[in-house]
Amino acid sequence: MFLQMRAEVEDALETALETLDLPTADLGVEEPPEDVDAVLASSAAFRLAGEIGAPPPKVAADVADAIDVGSLTYVSAVTTQGPYVNFLPSDAYFAETLDAATDDDFGRLPDRETSVVVEHTSANPTGPVHVGRARNPIIGDAVARVLDYAGYDVDRHYYVNDAGRQIAVFTWAYETFEESDLPEPERDSPEYEMVRYYRKGNSFLEDGDADEVETAEAEIQAILQGLEEGEEETYERVAEVVDTVLGGMQTTLGRLPAEFDEFVKETRFMRDGSTDELVDRLKELDCAVYEEDAWQLDLPDFEKNLVFLRSDGTSLYTTRDLAHHEWKFDNYDRAVTVLGEDHKLQADQLSAALELLGNDTDQLRQVFYSWVNLPEGGMSTREGTGIDLDDLLDEAIARAREEVESRLDDRSRGELDEDDIERIAHQVGIGAVRYDIVSKQPTKGITFEWDRALDFEAQSAPYVQYIHARCCGILDETGADERTASFDHLDEPEERALLRVIARFPAVIDEAAEDLQPHTVATYTRDLAETFNAFYRECPVLDADEETRAARLALVASTRHTVANALDAVGVAAPTSM
User: Model's pTM, two decimal places?
Assistant: First the structure.
């Protein structure tokens, strides 16, 4: 009901200011500090005081007096505190929150009839997904989920770099070396088997006989040229390598989970002629120059030129990405791209070029993230290969299993079999990794720490997941009908505080989608978990009188749905038992 109350408050404020013949451009509606007994407050008196020459508290009092509280549904009273106008919640606010939150879809906003494509991960298909880049699929998938909850029609895309030099080297190496020349794969999975060819090829190009390297480079260049010229045979050779590696990478990403609606290959925009057509348009721009044997854009505000065509007539990744983005603009209302911070210059240049080509770049937004590091000695590292995402997830599941088993009492051991423990270990372990990464602001570098991520008592995924499991346990024990209780029996401050937090969930989704900041949803789940724990400590559920018990069970059910959907919005499982 928070969104409905905010809309009601904004309308009431605007009407009051119009009545007082005051400007309504900035209503200053915001959430007050925790020690203020209001859901919303207005700071408009600060701004208006200077315009009308009156003290802010006097302006606030006049505004409050001009509001017809009796006509409002979700506001019980309007008070002032210094320059602030405070709006207190009505019983209807709490009652409708309790009713709405017992719905399985609580937190999902109405359809906006707006399509959004979210491109994320897009790691080069040259081998296993590395831990350092794991933040991209986690943040990208969370952004897509939050947008979906907010009512957008979301497609998730992985843009496949299948036309660059790395892939040409990979293709040449795969066709050149025998498997008997390679070490054993680190895992029985396609990308681990294939990456051996890629590493062998790069090693050969660095240290091989000069004449043999020259021959190899000619073959690699022939592959690149074949792609540029549209040779079907070359496309098929490259696709065999790329698709095999992508198949394995998908399995790893699916463990997070991070799934995609479409894998869009950059060769698509070479084969359909859109890259050639775009190159022709780029050459006609006033800032297009031919320098240092390449066509470039001398973009305003950038020290470095944007190269879009080599002297041999081959295009670059950025050229093809320009065609890719124009395709996005043609097919979607909005486009979001999740990128590492090292791609910011490239992204800015791409946006500038798109604008020069006549595109509305307001359709495009980027989410930048910094890297994930592991503490020294936190995991074993295979020599020369670093730490793969599979390693991290395996370790997380193993550690979670140990933690779960250590917390089982005699009763729990009798209720949970090995399959249950394994399920919980997966949900808790992978949830801990994902939550720890998504809960931080993307632009801040983070160091993943096991003790913090798997701490059942701290602000971590297991801490929040346990709230859901506890709610499920209470409801399963009672078999309560979630929708038959009355709000009238919820008048303890801890009950009201929990309903206030629950009511905010749809607004949290709305703001996270608007700002493309899923970490705010994770922060919200911690607030919800802490508030529920305070309620559970102070308000007995099963031992209360019949009517109070029914109302509190409905509040537990509302918490369960809210926690489950909030965790789902950031891609974390909500275990029914732990």
Answer: 0.92
